[in-house]
User: Which sequence fits this backbone?
């Protein structure tokens, strides 16, 4: 059958050989005619790709510049240099050995007195209040700490840098701008500030408060220490729980799990949990851990538990990949020597897969460290001034602190929010760098 | 029976032709630091079928892929020497690969139809090259290409089905139809039957014989019987060198080189 | 005994049981001819002893600490004066909180009603007793377990087998946590949602066009009785997600194509980590960026356009809200770019080289190959990735909480302020809550919706991607 067909085809072909020669010439002409257009399309397409990447990278650059330009100022804080006459009468102290007296002494009075002597024109009650407002309400506490450390200073006159109010701080930092910040400050206050500036009494110093204090309603007193410790505790709990449980699950699924419906069900659950919105985990924490188990709200322990449930899928998935990457020949070699399954896993598979597992864990923890929504749900948004000392002390976390400060109206908080973001990003980027480094090392191995 | 490259010596037989379609001179190919082809000189005549045989890893596929610059897509592959298609060097910096590949088509070892319909598979080439102006022209090209590839009767009722749904032999003929739809001058075939069963193979072989009326065909094959059946001339490669080129009948019945003889008598390969 | 001391004692007990179990095994093997006569290595006998000692004790401690507060509360309630029996649950919780605060020393005891002081003292004594009881029972369980192990250990005991079985069981239990989490999520949103739907009909929630959840606390208070039509929230969520997708899908896809098909190795090795940084930035940072940089920028642009002569000539004017959906959507889009790009990158790389060769071999240009062969071949995978990205956009919280508004406007205008499901959940549940009010419960109903929608999207997307992978394996 087929040969007959082919014969017919052949005769057809030979008849039109000339025609097909013609067609070939025609083809090349057509191809060449369209080439220009096609190469233009090619260049256009390539340009779209380049533009897309540039757009993404531009966003990254804009984001970082924006945050750094807003936040770098927060690492410095304005102080006002004042001559303080530590008069015993003003301080209401008669016995400098009496710590109780020293603690409750009238430091504010000393600072106010010094301000009054500097600017005697502030006579009216209203003006005086404005004058006092130049100095932070926290300045007296800092003075108190200084005097308590050196009680002998009482009765002398010392030159002290006192913390300036946040408006003064923002004004002083914005002097180089086209329109310096004025905020709620009055004409008079600005005149005083100008004269302070002229006499060289305004100084910018490294902002230790920002790293040593907890939260505060006053921007110049607000710091990230409380939030950082809170985050540290939370992440510690997350690490302990998600690392152990995650690796155990990965080992079970890769090395032990039989192929059955139950195993499939576990896998489906893990894959879906990986994509459940984080806020849902917050609802879980609220309804189950607080509502059912009666756990305390706002504590790092609960935050850690909720975040570890959220990070588990990430860790499990990457740990499984790491275990899969261990060549089966190593398992067979160990089994061939008579090692038990547990020995094979503990002696061979785990050590070889550990860098990969750690990479996944670090990436998961970095995610958890930046996570905010679930923590809002379990009450870690409370205004907490004290630095937490235990897993069960109420606290916030760094991203939540950023959220809280971003909501605050004071301009000085914008600066501090950005600075807190810089600190958070520094942590995240260094964690990711470690992860990348580990992954590189892992790649070299096989 | 391992041979070192030095012992092979210069190419024996009739490697150069008068008025060839393609002519290759002093071809060396490197993958990174590794040299895959050593100083090959070979001509391909108009409307002839040239088959290239040799043990695996001898460089025959590499050489074939050079003929329409498919090696460009492999990172670290470096090609030196001259490849002339009707007197023009295809590796000239100003040579454009797009029209080149429209003139020198290629059929691959594993059938690789696009995940599109049968019709769209064949119509793909004419469409991208802008060879047709109307839908009827395109229909005509698709039909005639499928007919030439001997696939028309099998698929004419299901042109809108996925090309990937065909059997292996049909897929390969679809790929050949796809290639001849743009009327190339040369068709390169890289072991086109290695993934097919004997019946599909014989269909493809018949097709090659038919196509040789109008097209120049270079075919790499691992089957000596196939080379003997379809080709006018045969080139034997060994360890990256071209050992012997001769008239097919001459090469298989009375090889000039002892390595060729060793290969065709099955002592290695 | 404080918790940390208890834990320390228990830990020391574990160490002791390991060495004693190991020691018992070795000594019992001595008169049989040495350690080699043991069924398993001494290590396993030690571990077996630890397991016997640890498991009952730890199970007890964890269960006890999970449920003791609940039991104590029950006891406390039963002890309260009779008139508290007919209190509403809200008042009861308030009362219990007060008692708790007195007991914890947050509120000064003096000045409070006597029955509250009594209750606080009772609470303290209950807590102390509970803790003592737990410590005693836990320690005795540990000791009992250890002695059972001690008795059982003999050279013929197949310790390795048993330890390995327990090891495997522990791993299995860990795997079940994923299931428990899912169950927990379902339960937590379902129960409260059912309560909510008892107060507000499902049809009103799903199809109502008006959302104003503020319920009057007192009868005479001005303010609505609360309207729970969630359509404005769904529309707001979809609007912001759609804007995000319009930004993210083309950019992410084209970036992936450029990186995997055109870029040199060196460019790839620089750009990919940079995109990963974009992916690693916390959402709260994006939210801050959206609220403080992008939103004002868009508003200013709107004002500027309003002032420009073309707009005046055409009589146009733009009303740009300071919390426009556009700002939140744009920034969310930027956040999703790396997500789409990395998924698309995987999918595009999975397209076999032979297809590219086939197309290039026919003389198509690189972009023709990509557009007409690679993308169609990769389409199912890309669609799956986009669906996952949509589910992420819908569930994204912080950007919209910070940059989108609270006003539940039913609009498709991206320059107006809209609110989303996640914003409402956060607003209802952060801060002081009214117990069992429809307002609080509505957050859980929204959570249920969110969970169901994202889950459906995920399951479908994962199935599509999986099918796609299998096609080319």
Assistant:
């Amino acid at each position: 059958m087929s040969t007959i067909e082919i014969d017919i085809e052949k005769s057809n072909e030979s008849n039109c050989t000339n025609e097909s020669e013609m067609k070939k010439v025609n083809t090349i002409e057509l191809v060449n005619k369209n080439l220009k257009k096609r190469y233009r399309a090619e260049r256009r397409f390539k340009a779209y790709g380049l533009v897309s990447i540039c757009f993404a990278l531009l966003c990254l650059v804009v984001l970082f510049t924006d945050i750094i330009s807003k936040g770098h100022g927060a690492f410095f804080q304005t102080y006002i240099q004042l001559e303080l006459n530590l008069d015993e009468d003003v301080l209401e102290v008669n016995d400098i050995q009496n710590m109780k007296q020293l603690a409750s002494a009238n430091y504010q009075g000393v600072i106010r007195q010094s301000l009054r002597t500097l600017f005697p024109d502030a006579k009216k009650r209203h003006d005086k209040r404005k004058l006092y407002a130049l100095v932070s309400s926290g300045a007296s506490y800092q003075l108190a700490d200084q005097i308590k450390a050196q009680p002998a200073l009482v009765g002398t006159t010392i030159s002290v840098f006192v913390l300036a109010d946040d408006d003064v701080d923002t004004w002083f930092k914005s002097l180089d701008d086209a329109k310096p910040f004025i905020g709620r400050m009055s004409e008079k206050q600005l005149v005083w500030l100008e004269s302070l500036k002229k006499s060289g009494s305004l100084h910018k110093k490294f902002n230790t408060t920002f790293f040593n204090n907890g939260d505060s309603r006053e921007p110049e007193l607000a710091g990230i220490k409380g939030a950082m410790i809170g985050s540290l505790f939370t992440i510690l709990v997350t690490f302990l729980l998600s690392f152990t449980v995650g690796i155990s699950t990965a080992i079970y699924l890769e090395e032990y799990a039989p192929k059955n419906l139950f195993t499939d069900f576990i896998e489906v659950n893990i894959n879906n949990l990986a994509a459940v919105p984080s806020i849902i985990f917050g609802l879980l924490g609220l309804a189950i851990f607080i509502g059912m188990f009666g756990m305390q709200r706002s504590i790092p322990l609960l935050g850690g538990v909720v975040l570890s449930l959220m990070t588990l899928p990430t860790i499990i998935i990457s740990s499984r990949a790491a275990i899969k990457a261990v060549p089966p020949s190593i398992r067979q070699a160990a089994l061939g020597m008579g090692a038990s399954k547990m020995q094979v896993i503990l002696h061979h598979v785990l050590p070889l897969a550990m860098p990969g597992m750690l990479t996944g864990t670090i990436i998961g923890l970095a995610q958890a460290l930046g996570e905010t929504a679930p923590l809002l749900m379990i009450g870690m948004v409370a205004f907490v001034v004290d630095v937490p000392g235990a897993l069960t002390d109420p606290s916030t976390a760094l991203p939540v602190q950023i959220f809280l400060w971003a909501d605050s109206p004071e301009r000085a908080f914008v600066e501090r929010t950005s600075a807190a973001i810089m600190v958070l990003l520094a942590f995240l980027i260094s964690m990711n760098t470690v992860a990348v480094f580990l992954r590189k090392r892992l790649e070299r191995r096989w | 029976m391992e041979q070192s490259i030095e012992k092979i010596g210069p190419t024996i037989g009739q490697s150069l032709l008068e008025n060839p379609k393609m002519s290759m001179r002093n071809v060396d190919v490197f993958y990174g630091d590794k040299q895959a082809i050593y100083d090959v000189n070979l001509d391909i005549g108009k409307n002839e079928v040239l088959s290239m045989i040799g043990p695996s890893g001898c460089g025959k596929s590499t050489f074939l892929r050079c003929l329409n610059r498919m090696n460009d897509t492999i990172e670290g592959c470096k090609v030196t020497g001259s490849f002339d298609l009707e007197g023009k060097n295809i590796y000239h910096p100003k040579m454009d690969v797009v029209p080149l590949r429209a003139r020198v088509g290629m059929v691959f070892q594993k059938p690789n139809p696009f995940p599109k319909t049968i019709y769209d598979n064949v119509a793909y080439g004419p469409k991208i090259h802008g060879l047709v102006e109307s839908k009827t022209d395109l229909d005509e090209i698709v039909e005639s290409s499928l007919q030439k590839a001997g696939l028309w009767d099998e698929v004419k009722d299901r042109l809108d089905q996925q090309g990937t749904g065909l059997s292996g032999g049909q897929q390969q003929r679809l790929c050949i139809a796809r290639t001849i739809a743009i009327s190339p001058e040369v068709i390169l075939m890289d072991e086109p039957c290695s993934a097919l069963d004997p019946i599909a193979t014989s269909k493809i072989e018949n097709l090659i014989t038919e196509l040789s009326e109008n097209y120049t065909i270079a075919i790499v094959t691992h089957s000596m019987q196939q080379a003997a059946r379809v080709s006018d001339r045969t080139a034997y490669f060994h360890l990256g060198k071209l050992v012997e080129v001769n008239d097919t009948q001459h090469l298989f019945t009375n090889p000039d080189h002892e390595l060729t003889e060793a290969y065709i008598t099955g002592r290695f390969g | 005994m404080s918790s940390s001391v208890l834990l320390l004692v228990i830990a020391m007990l574990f160490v002791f049981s390991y060495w004693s179990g190991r020691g018992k095994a070795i000594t019992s093997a001595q008169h049989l001819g040495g350690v080699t006569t043991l069924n398993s290595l001494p290590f396993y006998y030690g571990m077996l002893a630890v397991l016997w000692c640890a498991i009952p004790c730890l199970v007890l401690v964890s269960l006890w600490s999970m449920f003791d507060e609940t039991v104590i509360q029950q006891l406390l309630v039963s002890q309260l004066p009779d008139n508290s029996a007919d209190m509403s649950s809200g008042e009861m919780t308030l009362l219990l909180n007060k008692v708790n605060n007195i007991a914890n020393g947050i509120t000064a005891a003096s000045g409070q009603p006597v029955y509250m002081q009594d209750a606080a003292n009772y609470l303290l004594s209950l807590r102390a007793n509970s803790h003592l009881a737990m410590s005693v029972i836990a320690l005795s369980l540990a000791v009992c377990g250890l002695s059972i192990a001690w008795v059982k250990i003999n050279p013929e005991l197949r310790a390795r087998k048993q330890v390995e079985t327990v090891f495997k069981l522990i791993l299995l239990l860990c795997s079940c946590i994923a299931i428990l989490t899912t169950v927990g999520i379902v339960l937590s949103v379902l129960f409260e949602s059912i309560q909510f739907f008892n107060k507000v009909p499902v049809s009103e929630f799903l199809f109502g066009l008006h959302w104003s959840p503020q319920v009057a606390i007192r009868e005479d208070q001005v303010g609505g009785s609360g309207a729970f039509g969630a359509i404005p929230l769904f529309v707001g969520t979809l609007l912001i997600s759609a804007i995000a997708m319009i930004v993210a899908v083309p950019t992410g896809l084209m970036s992936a194509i450029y990186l995997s098909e055109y870029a040199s190795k060196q460019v790839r090795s620089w750009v990919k980590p940079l995109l990963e940084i974009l992916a690693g930035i916390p959402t709260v940072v994006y939210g801050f960026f959206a609220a403080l940089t992008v939103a004002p920028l868009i508003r200013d642009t709107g004002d500027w356009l309003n002032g420009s002569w073309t707009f005046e000539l055409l009589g146009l004017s733009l009303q740009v809200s300071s919390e426009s959906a556009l700002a939140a959507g744009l920034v969310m889009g930027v956040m999703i770019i790396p997500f789409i790009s990395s998924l698309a990158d995987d999918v595009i790389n999975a397209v076999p080289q032979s297809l590219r060769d086939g197309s290039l071999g026919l003389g198509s240009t690189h972009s023709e190959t990509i557009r007409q062969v690679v993308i169609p071949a990769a389409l199912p995978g890309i669609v799956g990735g986009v669906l996952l990205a949509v589910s992420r956009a819908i569930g994204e919280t912080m950007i919209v909480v910070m940059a989108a508004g609270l006003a539940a406007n039913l609009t498709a205008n991206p320059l107006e302020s809209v609110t989303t499901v996640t914003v409402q959940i956060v607003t209802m549940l952060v801060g002081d809550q009214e117990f069992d009010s429809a307002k609080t419960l509505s957050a859980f109903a929204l959570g249920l919706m969110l969970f169901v929608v994202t889950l459906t999207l995920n399951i479908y997307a994962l199935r599509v991607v999986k099918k796609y992978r299998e096609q080319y394996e």
In short: Strands of chain A lie at 76-85, 157-163, 202-206. Confidence is low (pLDDT under 50) at residues 1-16 of chain A. Residues 23 and 93 of chain A are 111 Å apart (CA to CA).
